[in-house]
Amino acid sequence: MGASSLLKKVIMVLAVSVISTNAYAQSDESSSGDAAGGDEGAAASAGLSTEGGSVEVDSNVETPTASKSDKPWSMAGSRHLPTLTGPTGLFHTMEAGSDEPKTFALGLHGAFFKYRDYMTYGDEQVHMWGGLALRITPVKHLEIFAGLAAQAYSSNIPDILVQTLGNFNIGLKGYVSPIAPLTLGLVFGLELTPPIDDISVTFKGVTIPLGLLITGDFTQLNKKIPLRAHFNAVYRFDNTAKLIESYEDVRGGCGTDIDGDGVLDYNGCISPAERKGLELDRTDQFRFSFGFDAPLPYITPLIEYNLDVPVNRQDFRCPIYSGLNVDNDSCMDVEGGRGMRQTLTLGFRILPPVRTLSIDFGVDIGLAGYAPTVQEIAPQSPYRILFGLTYGFAPSEKSAEPCPEPEAAEPIYPQPVIAGYVYDSADENKAIEGAFVKYADMDANDQVTDSNGKFRSYPMPTGKVAFTVSAKGYEDASFEVEIPNPAEAADQADPSVPQVIAVSCPLKIAKLVGRVTIKVEDKNGSLSDATVELSGPEFISGKTSDKGLYQAEVTPGHYSVLAKKDGYFERERVIEAVLNEERELTIILTEKPSESSVEVTKNQIALKKMVFFVTGSSEIMAESLNLLDEVVDVLRQYKDFTKVEIQGHTDNRGGKKMNMELSQRRAESVMDYLVKEGISADRLTAKGFGPTKPKAPNVTAAGRAKNRRVEFHIKERAK
Q: What angle (nearest 5°) sits at the alpha carbon of residue 604, between those of residues 603 and 610?
């Protein structure tokens, strides 16, 4: 039978299975599978009363009663069944989660294929495999698994019969569900392959798989067609080729220099059929697996894709021929992707009326990795028929002995549930989809609101129950509900119906803010109790802490920051507040001198000291910065000085043109410093006069020093 014909038939069987089971699911919407990790999924939304954000009992909301899908056997236990090798999952793809704590499951599976013209024209290959798998979940977040397998493989070209017994694997899986519906897992294991000539246990050919598992449980999104998705990325440290090293050396070597002539020998390499029979690889593999299953009431259809990417950690040197050799055996460097093992698996698990029992059927369809084969890895089977049984156990559940009919049994009332509605506080009709509901002091998964902003809780304990609702773009909000005693509040006419508590959950739109940190210092370090004022999209102010820090959350935008303290010159800087980011700014204040070097006259801000520049340059020397800080302080005080001209003057040494340009640059340099310190550029002008306005004759050094000066002339005052 060809692979394409087989694929068509399997797809037809699966389609019929899904259609028939979906017809049942449409008539019974209350059926659903368990969430990955063994936690119960969120229930359906309920009608609510949301007047004023109050909490009230909604007696009109109905809760679905038990249906066919509530029968224990219809769900086949918890739907967390072992793979062919032990861990919870599909046939090959592992599930990230597991079953409930204190449970375990057994699986007994077989596989078979018979194929002509498999590796070369005229051959006939027969392969049979059988395995026993065990999965144990002792505690939450941990799974232990093991598997034992045997196989037989025969070929007429070459004429061989290979039997392996005692292939054993064991491993651990840890998992956690950070948010619904996602479960993450890590897996580690050991796979022990016996030597080719006996069944003893040896670590010589051990394979160590280590990988990441992800499962998304979407069964609550569409209960008519529930779906779970699985992804595995597992690196396999494969050492099985060590089991045949000595065997191949005796036959003439395989990628080794047997005769010492400096040339690698390949006369002793085992054939592709032998590699297939022994399932031996010469390289590691990075195995990627994708799988989907749909836990319907009576059947679970599934589909998987597996890809093995060889990683030549062993540095095996494969001989690259101009063409294929007589064994139709090529190399990975030649074949590339079509030499890698790739498998499509289609199957289903039938759930008979026996609790936790599953009857499994499936088919592996080889997509690549054979015809031609490659020497680095064992060939891919063209197809394999899969079949088996799995059965789950819950040791903590003991069968109760038949009891006499009670004389007057008290009714058992179910615990009440919360039916919540999450909406925008500014518009009660604006439901918030995808909000997370987290219960305080409860070991329960978060819940997510549906497209109508609704959620329905797990059964709640009597007393006060607190929960927090969070959504993107909104502020988190906490709510508290008083859960009544179900025996006192339940509908006496029908004690099986739980009371529904309707809750309104309004959320406020989150303020869009950026965070700024202003550090104020002087020459000795941090400056506490300094005043900081931020002016921009909003105005805020405050004092620095003992560590000289002022922190605030502000509307994003451009801010002017003024730092001041008695006895210090004020200093102004700018900062950009960015949404959801933290920005920092350091401002250094200088102390005011005991005696001022600046005097305000009718038409001038007179300096008692000189402003010094680097010779022949407009660079202001550091010793003059305090003097200019005094000018800044005066301009802050006298805001009525609306136009001040900064004049630059030089002596007569050098050319006039050079001095005119130098004095202009120096006047502009002083103006730039004042603007940097927060004085508006609209209040200032800069003009260089060179040697044209001397204050003293340029005859002596003292006279020339007086002529090299900066002056501040008041040109306009506010009226």
A: 160
Please name the fold of domain 598-717: 60s Ribosomal Protein L30; Chain: A; (3.30.1330)
What backbone torsions phi and psi does residue 402 show, to the nearest 5 degrees? -55, 135
Sign of CA dihedral 481, 482, 484, 490: negative
Q: Which candidate, 212, 136, 199, places its Cα nearest to that of 171?
A: 136
DSSP letter, residue 4: H
Least confident of 270-284, 287-301, 395-409, 483-497: 395-409
Q: Across-strand partners of 303?
A: 292, 346
d(CA 620, CA 608): 17
Instruction: Give CATH for domain 514-588.
Output: 2.60.40.1120
Whether the per-residue pLDDT at 81 is higher than 80: the answer is yes
Fold classification of 417-507 (topology level)? Immunoglobulin-like (2.60.40)
Closest C-alpha to 91, from 109, 117, 71: 109
706 phi-psi bin (left φ>0, alpha ψ -120 to 50, beta other): alpha
Those residues whose C-beta lies under 8 Å from the C-beta of residue 318, and which sit 6 or more positions away, are: 255, 331, 332, 333, 374, 375, 376
Residue type, 240: T
Q: Which two tokens mark 39?
A: 């936690």
Asked if the domains at 417-507 and 598-717 fall in one CATH topology, the answer is no
Query: How many other CB atoms sit within 10 Å of the CB of residue 184?
Result: 17
Q: How far apart are CA 373 and CA 172, in angstroms?
A: 33
Q: Where are the domains of the chain?
A: 3-30+76-393, 417-507, 514-588, 598-717
Nearest of 144, 166, 103 to residue 391 by alpha carbon: 103
Phi then psi for residue 519, to 5 deg, are: -110, 125
Q: Tell me yes or no: is domain 3-30+76-393 CATH 2.40.160.40.
A: yes
What is the model's pTM?
Answer: 0.49
- State the pLDDT at residue 10: 42
Q: Quick one: which of 170, 73, 62, 684 has its CA closest to 417? A: 62
The two structure tokens encoding residue 261: 């002539």
Helices marked H in 120-187? none
In DSSP terms, 478 is beta-bridged to 468
357 — alpha (psi -120 to 50), left (phi > 0) or beta?
beta
| Residue 448: per-residue pLDDT | 94
Round to whole Å and give the CA distance between 226 and 32: 7
**574 within 8 A of 541, measured Cβ to Cβ:** no
Tokens 């079949």 locate to 387
Closest C-alpha to 108, from 357, 395, 289: 357
pLDDT tens for each residue of 266-318: 888 888 888 888 888 999 999 999 999 998 888 899 999 999 999 999 999 88
Give rounded-to-5 percent helix, strand, coil for the chain: 15, 40, 45
Beta-carbon contacts of 409 under 8 Å, excluding residues fewer than 6 positions away, are: none
State the pLDDT confidence band at 170, using cuts at 50, 70 and 90. very high
pLDDT at 410: 65
Cα separation, 671 vs 679, whole angstroms: 9
Q: What is the pLDDT of residues 604-649, one digit of tens each?
A: 999 999 999 998 899 999 999 989 999 999 998 898 999 999 999 9
Distance of CA 401 to the CA centre of its chain: 49
Instruction: Assess whether the previous peptide bond of 158 is cis (omega < 30° from 0).
Output: yes
